[in-house]
Amino acid sequence: MIEDLAFIGQIAVKSSIAVLLATLGEIVAERSGILNLGVEGMMLTGALCAAAAGIATGNPILAVAAGTLAGGLLALVHGFFAVTLRVNQVLSGLALTLLGMGVTSFLGRPLIGIAPGVRLRAVPIPGLADIPVIGDIFFRQSPLAYLAYVLVPLCWYWIFHTGTGLKIRAVGEDAAAVDAAGIDVFRIRYLCTFAGGLGAGLAGAYLSLSYTPGWKESMTGGQGWVAIAMVIFATWNPLRAVVGAFLFGGLTALQFYFQAVGVELVPAYVLKMLPYLLTIAVMILVNVGPGRRFGGPAALGVPFSREG
Amino acid sequence: MIWRIEKRTAALARPHAWLFPVSLAFAVAAGACIFSALGVSPLAAYGTMARGAFGSFYHFSEVVVRAIPLMLTGLAVAVAATMLLWNIGCEGQLVWGGIFAAGTGLYLIPHLPPFLAIPAVIAAGAAGGLLWGLIPGLLRAYLAVNEILSSLLLNYIAIIFMEHLYFGPWRNPEGFGFPGTAQIGEAARIPHWFGTRIHLGLVLALVMAALVFAALRYTRWGYQVRAIGLNPQAARYAGFRIRGQIVFIMGLSGALAGLAGMAEVSGIHFRLQQGLAVGYGYDGIIVAWLARLNPLAVPLVALLLGALIVGGEQLQSVLHLPASISMVLEAVLLFGLLLSESLARYRLVRRAAGEETSAAGKGLP
Amino acid sequence: MAMTTLSSPVLALTDITKRFGDVRANQRVTWTLDAGRIYALLGENGAGKSTLMSILAGRYQPDGGEIHLRGSPVRFLSPAQALASGIGMVYQRFMLVEPLTVAENILLRRGPIRGKRTRDIRQIRELAERYGLLVNPLAPVRTLTMGERQRVEILKLLYRQAEILIFDEPTAVLTHAEIDSLFDVFRQLKEEGKTVVFITHKLEEVMAVADEIAVMRRGRMVSRVAAAQVRSHHDLARMMVGREVILSVQKPPVAIGEAVLTAMGLSGPAGADRLKFQDVDFEVRRGEIFTITGVAGNGQEQLVAALAGLAPMAAGTVSFRNRAYTAARWRRRTGDGLAYIPEDRDRTGSIDAFTLVENFMLTRLDAFGGALWVRRRRAARATAAAVRDFSIQGGGIRGLAAHLSGGNRQKLILARELSRRPDLLIAEQPTQGLDVRATEEVWQALLRQRASAAVLLVTGDLKEALTLSDRIAVMFRGRILDIVSAREAADIDRIKLLMAGLGKRE
């Protein structure tokens, strides 16, 4: 039973890292008021570039960097449209997803079936990995998972306890007020859009270097969309993003487990739906609850111009 | 160097007929670049696509077949967007339309008199989508839940539920493990024409486009919807019931998407199976906006997108280029539209170093 | 006076001109400001006060003229640049990020720096105490009252070492006690040698705190006097409103009929922290124009919104056409008989992207639509008739409302509302911003309407009130102070005093 728990936990964490990284990125972007529905596309691009760089160089660091940066660069396209051109962010984000899906699908063709150049295998952390259960679950994971562990508090600290984070949150709430204080709204929004893309790109790199090494067409399987949902579930807080991502990973792992042991305590489809149902429930609670304490950034999706 | 844009004066602030051609040209040019990069002459590639889409009556009929669900989801998005509502949930509503249609075809039609079969399937499809569309509508109207996110989330739930149905309780017992329901009976299939796969859905879609257009333009209801969409404050002043309209519009939008699902099940697949949710709901968003939310333009844009998809497939089989190029072209088309629309409203100006604002205050304070 | 002549002015505006399209918001405005003084800037709506102040604060750039700060010419391209030079402005719409705390809002530009955080907060506290701006630096702005928010805005400026502080109608959102303490802050700022400029409509505020008074009218600076030279509210009222001449509008006598609308004890709006109007009683009779006037922000807007059924009332009864309604039932009243011309003709009264015909249907769907269809042809005929009768100029009935000028737009709305043949017509600031000809046309239409209906006119324009009205009610701080029949010159003086909150008949 304990082994089962450790096994489920390990798979759960493993399956949650990509969503977690992408969610962190999207939280940063949305905190500044930029809704980027292109996460799926950025993740795929990150995954492909990481896999390609891995095959080309064999260097894990270069592979991760390539994937991450690719996500960030793609996000800048959205930034240009959403921030500078002030177009509708929903349309721009959807176009970005399409672009990412289409481009990776045909650029990735030569890579299908080729042995991955880089495999980021689980690295047990000495000492911590030997803690019963906990060690198995959390400390026998990919290096990128450890990076995610670090990024969560860093991201949280950045948003809630630094000067830049303060400006980001302020821009997402009321860009006009921030502009009146003499702060460059555009620069902050570009920065956050880019950061959001980095998160998605890193998530993609995790998928193609660690989770299932190698490139497969549309290998993200909708995890980018899950990340967007998890941002709401996390009520735009990086710490709570852990809960959302782990919930998603845990439910995925449970499905594996039920399949493996052949019993189904809860129907698999209910498990699969659960993250989305819970997210909708959170959205309702956010609105019905007292005040807007857990609500999203007030200016989410609203372009800024001084002319009003 | 930082670019910033400023509002144009009123003369250019209105939508223009040249937006669509410009974005089309933008996409064609971008596509040409891609083809060249892949080592294929753009002329040859576009020629292949054109032949694939329009080369013969059969080819064109396939374009129409793809366009049918796009017309319906495009209409669904357009009608909601007329009232400033974003229905990103067409995919899920389409799925529910399919589920209801398949369920009716499988379990109800055998007990119905034959003349009721087709109407029952159509009504069921619309009802399935309608119910699924009402959820984000109600949430938005009464709990102020953002319909973009809720309708998006509902897509996953719908798809997961559909998968559960055809993997589980509705699975075809004689399907040799093939994931899908049994085929619906002949009675529940909408008619096909011209010896092609073109089916009744086409007429349905065209009629709906005309109906939606007429309803928005000529009815009291449509007048209110347009007023609310253009200026909610004035609509409130005029005493229109905005909440009720939100619910109604989302229901209608869902029903249109549900019809698309019904048409796919009852006209193409004849069963619930993988391949029902292939993104027509999302493509509908592109169709609606390329059509500038005009219901009469929706079928034409849907045909264009259908041609793009079929042409893309042709690239694959003839030139061995990936079919996903059509997806890229779609994305570029959308970006092109956004770009040209933005440039119609604004002018790009270069921001001088150190200058924080460029001629702010073009309008009255 | 000796002090002002000794020191050179801290800020000098010379021939400032600003145009918005065809509208000249400021025309060759010249003004000098000294350190350690409080200036009140007076004027009617649209006189150009806010534009002038926004130019000072760097939000707009002037089309012509010069600004000299301590003797050297300056040009501000953004509010940030103006603030860096020591000029800050508190806008009517507060520029605060609501979920953030007071301290975070104040420190926004620099951001809280770790380690120095407690020091920053102590600094804010000290600043707040020095000026009597009591507010908790750690409280989220969302939880603050409007008065507290204003203090945060002032603190923001003081923290950035602003020397010239500009306030756009600072008292509009405040309670009486808050106004008093704001004035204490003004005096403290003056003590410290800072310059305070505030825009206001309220004469008693000017008398209470200003050292110098400047009055703008139609984009020009028409007078500047030291407050000490102003002997009474009377003088001030005359300065602000001008020597209004009642235009010779033909006003044929009409028989006064029965009361169409009787308001008793109205208070509201419901659900607000503070009642904007209270215990309002009046009646409007068929055949008369009954006017509610007052300085902007004394509750007229909220009262009209409630009467028009757009906002809920807290208490009172309305009887309309001999039927009595409670406050709650009034809002759900259905049926016609009441037409309303809203103040914001561009955003509330009409829809830019609709044609004239479509706009003409906006409040008349019952007439131009069956249960299902809209009868466009009938609406087009009615619109064409309206365009003819009211000589509405602009792209024809199929043209868009967006292309109409303000006057023509107002005439379209007026024509539409009159075509409803209402028993009561509520007209809110019906000629604001219109040129002389359009104004006269609107006036004539309102006067004609007396023949069949009761007219409730709500206006801040005294000239308009005196020209048109049979009786004038003056609102002050949410209450009707008195109702004056507008027949004698003596009444006019009384109305002015009432508008300033004086001369109430006890």
Task: Offer a quick outline of the entry.
By secondary structure, chain A is mostly helical. Chain A has 12 helices and 2 strands; from the N terminus they run H-H-H-H-E-H-E-H-H-H-H-H-H-H. Chain A has helices at 2-31, 39-57, 60-84, 89-107, 134-138, 143-161, 163-173, 175-180, 185-211, 223-233, 238-261, 268-288; strands spanning 123-124, 140-141.
- Name the poorly predicted regions of chain B: 1-14, 349-365
CATH superfamily of the largest domain in chain C: P-loop containing nucleotide triphosphate hydrolases
What shape does the CA trace of chain B take? Answer: globular
The greatest interface here is: A-B, 49 and 56 residues
Q: What oligomeric state do these chains adopt?
A: heterotrimer
Mean pLDDT across the residues of chain B is 85
Shape field of chain C: globular
Largest sheet of chain B: 2 strands, antiparallel
Describe this entry's structure for a reader.
- The complex is a heterotrimer of chains A (308), B (365) and C (506).
- Chain A has twelve helices and two strands; from the N terminus they run H-H-H-H-E-H-E-H-H-H-H-H-H-H.
- Chain A has 308 residues and is an all-alpha fold.
- Chain A has a two-stranded antiparallel sheet with strand order 1-2.
- Chain A starts with a helix and ends in a 20-residue tail after the last helix.
- The model of chain A has no long low-confidence stretch (mean pLDDT 89).
- Chain B is mainly alpha-helical and 365 residues long.
- Chain B has a domain of 218 residues.
- Chain B is globular, with a radius of gyration of 22 Å.
- The N terminus and C terminus of chain B are likely disordered.
- Chain C is built from 18 helices and 20 strands.
- In chain C, strands 6-7-8-3-9-10 form a six-stranded mixed β-sheet, with helices on both faces. Chain C has a six-stranded mixed β-sheet with strand order 16-17-18-13-19-20, with helices on both faces. A four-stranded antiparallel β-sheet of chain C has the order 2-1-4-5, covered by helices on one side.
- In chain C, helix 15 packs parallel to helix 16.
- The interface between A and C is medium-sized, with 22 and 26 residues.
